[in-house]
Amino acid sequence: MTFEPQIYEIRLREASCTDISIMAAHHKKMFEEIWELKGEHLETVRAEEIEKAYTQKLETEMESGICKAWVIKSMPNESSIM
User: Fold this and answer.
1) d(CA 80, CA 13)
2) Do residues 71 and 10 make contact, with C-beta atoms less than 8 angstroms apart?
3) How many domains does the chain have?
4) What is this structure's pTM?
5) Considering the domain boundaries, does residue 8 fall inside one?
6) Which pLDDT does position 1 carry in this prediction?
7) Can you tell me the distance from the alpha carbon of 19 to that of 65, in angstroms, rounded to the nearest whole number?
8) Residue 2 lies in a domain
9) Reduced to 3 states, what is the DSSP secondary structure of residue 14?
10) How far is it between the farthest Cα atoms of the chain?
11) I need a labelling partner for 79 at 20 to 30 A (CA). Which of 5, 14, 15, 18 fits?
């Protein structure tokens, strides 16, 4: 069996307010994985609180220009954010 790597074309762009929900979900997943690596479980309610708080933070800070974020999109599927 041979391994055939897949090559993807990607595009880096500045995130917009329409990306906040995706970034917040990623942030929540990151904390869930950190807890899992520590052998612990992040309760669903707490994970949702983290996601909600991060959403609010991004909404405020991206709109004011305090926070900048970037997203990587795979091509040609423009809807796929990495």
Assistant:
1) 13
2) no
3) 1
4) 0.77
5) no
6) 66
7) 15
8) no
9) strand
10) 53
11) 5
Whether the CB-CB separation of 79 and 14 falls below 8 Å is answered with no
Asked if 24 and 54 touch (Cβ cutoff 8 Å), the reply is yes
Rounded CA-CA distance 4/15 in Å is 32
Contact 81, 12 (CB under 8 A): no
| Residue 5 φ/ψ, nearest 5 degrees | -65, 145
Query: Which pLDDT score, from 0 to 100, does residue 37 have?
Result: 96
Q: Which two tokens stand for residue 1?
A: 């069996």
26 exposure class (CB count in 10 Å sphere: 0-12, 13-18, 19+): middle
Residue 47 lies in a domain: yes
Provide the β-strand partners of residue 13: 71
Provide the pLDDT for residue 44: 95
Per-residue tokens: 31: 């904390």
Q: Where are the beta strands (DSSP E) in the chain?
A: 9-14, 70-75
